[in-house]
Design brief:
This protein is mostly helical. Helices cover about 30% and strands about 5% of the residues. The chain is built from four helices and two strands. It has a two-stranded antiparallel ribbon. It is flat and about 75 Å long.
Length: about 110
């Protein structure tokens, strides 16, 4: 028991983390980001904002730390996922949609 007698060399496995790392890189380069309006009531004068979490931060380092958190990544994943149900989906599920009369039979 133990090892497989036919395999001499241990098979190398690729890391699953490298494929996932690219999924969450959604930040735009600083040149493309439009400056926000100054607002004295918001932290950081309203300049450091997370669109996904709807939060303002006091400076870029705090915002960048927030981008690495589990809550932010989970919210981004939810927002990138499938769209919510539409009214048509609700009608079809409730039996109010288009009727299904079955396959058409040939009339002779």
């Amino acid at each position: 028991m133990g090892r497989c007698p036919t395999r001499k060399v241990k098979k190398r496995r690729l890391s699953h983390k490298t494929a996932r790392r690219d999924k969450f890189e959604l930040r735009k380069p600083e040149a493309e980001v439009k400056p926000l309006q100054l607002d004295e009531d918001l932290p950081g004068m309203g300049q450091f904002y997370c669109l996904h979490c709807d939060r303002y931060f006091s400076n870029t380092s705090v915002r960048d730390d927030h981008f690495k958190t589990k809550k932010h990544k989970k919210r981004v994943k939810i927002m990138k996922g499938p769209a919510p149900h539409s009214q048509l989906d609700a009608d079809l599920a409730g039996g109010m949609g288009m009727p299904d009369n079955g396959p058409k039979l040939m009339s002779a």
